[in-house]
Write a structure and sequence with these properties.
- By secondary structure, the chain is mainly beta.
- It has two domains: about 45 residues; about 70 residues, OB fold (Dihydrolipoamide Acetyltransferase, E2P), CATH 2.40.50.
- Helix content is about 5%, strand content about 40%.
- The chain is built from one helix and eight strands, in the order αββββββββ.
- The strands form two sheets. The protein has a five-stranded antiparallel β-sheet with strand order 6-5-4-7-8, with no helix packed on it.
- The longest helix is centred in the first third of the chain and has 8 residues.
- It starts with 13 loop residues before the first helix and ends in an 8-residue tail after the last strand.
- The structure holds zinc ion (ZN).
- The site of zinc ion has 8 residues, from loops.
Length: about 140
């Protein structure tokens, strides 16, 4: 049983997975009013434009909330931490946290993206960032 359900790109988020393949966290924004949005969608909720473009995120953010996900077939294994990440771009992304103990996760924890291959699927993951804030 695979531990990861492989992403199935569609027309709206193909660019996102293309970016992941290149080790980039790409986000979408409206090409007309530049409003950023995630998850990708065909139309801007602000100006209703269907023109859109991708841009590369800094990959930095903070933890908003998280859950521990225990795998049903291996309940004793280390739980995967599924987290909502508030990106510096002002968007919220669902991902996994690595490199941190479940008991050390806290709201506002600075994190940064990295890319890991999990069960043959390359995915954006987040880990604690120790240099967060210096670039701001
Ligand atoms: Zn717009």
């Amino acid at each position: 049983m695979p531990r990861v359900i492989p992403p199935v790109p569609d027309a709206d988020d193909q660019f996102f997975w293309d970016g992941v393949a290149e080790g980039k966290l790409l986000l979408q924004r409206c090409a007309s009013c530049k409003t950023k949005r995630h998850p990708p969608s065909p139309m801007c909720a602000v100006c209703l434009s269907v023109e859109r473009e991708a841009f590369e995120a800094t990959g930095r953010g903070t933890v908003y909330s998280w859950i521990a996900s225990h795998h049903p077939s291996t309940p004793d294994a280390e739980p995967r931490i599924v987290a909502l990440i508030d990106l510096d771009e002002g968007l919220r992304l669902v991902s996994n946290l690595q490199g941190v103990a479940l008991t050390d996760v806290r709201p506002g924890l600075p994190v940064e993206v990295f890319f890991a291959e999990i069960d043959g699927v390359k995915l954006p993951q987040f880990r604690p960032s120790h240099s967060h804030g210096h670039a701001q």
